[in-house]
Amino acid sequence: MKKNLALLMLVGFLATQAYAAPITTTKSKAPKATLEQQLSKYVTYPEALKPTQQAGVVVIQFRVNSSSEVCKLEVFSQNEQLNSALIRQLTGKKINGYGSETSEVHTVRLRFQPE
Where is the signal peptide (predicted)? Predict the structure, then answer.
């Protein structure tokens, strides 16, 4: 009798474990918007380009700190006024979905169109 009861308990335990659905608590690490889209919300058409009304592409590199803020920003263009304007506009801005790896360097192209 004890053997049958123990066997029945074992079968019941295994059956409940086989059909148990584990709860997943992991969040999706994929950001909802790309880096370019998030950064373009913060950037206005630079004053340095307004006299010429030219469109252009600028490459920037930066890191995202543990607070999900843009830091250590570098702008790669020939125009120093444009470089300083972009650094001023983007430093410290929040970026969603990229703050987990603080040593990673991100490279982004930003496009400018005259207004």
Answer: 1-20
